[in-house]
Amino acid sequence: MASYVHNVSSGSEADTKYEMIDERKRRRMISNRESARRSRMRKRQHVEDLINEVSKLQKANSEIALQINQTSQLYAGIENENNILRAQVMELNDRLESLNSVLGIVEEVKGYSFDIPQMADPLLKPWQLPYPSQPLMASASMFLS
């Protein structure tokens, strides 16, 4: 059989040993509590930072949405203005065509010679102006004989 050797030390040594162990446990417990407290503080700070960031991002998002709305409204207004200008161009082209036909008739009947410009198709070359930017010089005396 195995025999166990048991050292019996005096009571004061055992008490001192247990006090040292208790002191270590107490210090370890205090250290763990402090570490947990710091961890909770870091977590709380991190959550606050995230909440602040969410708030900033929501504000930026609403500002961008407002800018998009304003830009869309501006675009719609410009598109309407463009449509009006296109209609006016078509109307002016029709009027010019009518005036050119009248000038052609006057040229045939009276023998006057006019330089009647050919109308360019603005859809073929949209970057070029279809007519030179010179005013048409017409007077009422041209049509009276």
Which features does this protein show?
single chain, 145 residues, mainly alpha
Can you characterise this structure?
The protein has 145 residues and is mainly alpha-helical. It has a domain at 13-106. Helices cover 69% and strands 0% of the residues. The protein has one helix and no strands. The chain has one helix at 11-110. The protein starts with 10 loop residues before the first helix and ends in a 35-residue tail after the last helix. 0% of the residues are buried. Residues 1-6 and 134-138 have low confidence and may be disordered.
Name the overall outline: rod-shaped
Question: Residue ranges: pLDDT <50 for 5 or more in a row?
Answer: 1-6, 134-138
Structural class: mainly alpha
- End-to-end C-alpha gap: 152 Å
What's the Cα radius of gyration? Answer: 48 Å
What's a quick, concise take on this entry?
The chain is mainly α.
Provide the fold topology:
Blueprint: H1 11-110
GO molecular function: DNA-binding transcription factor activity; protein heterodimerization activity; transcription cis-regulatory region binding
Subcellular location: Nucleus
Protein name: Basic-leucine zipper domain
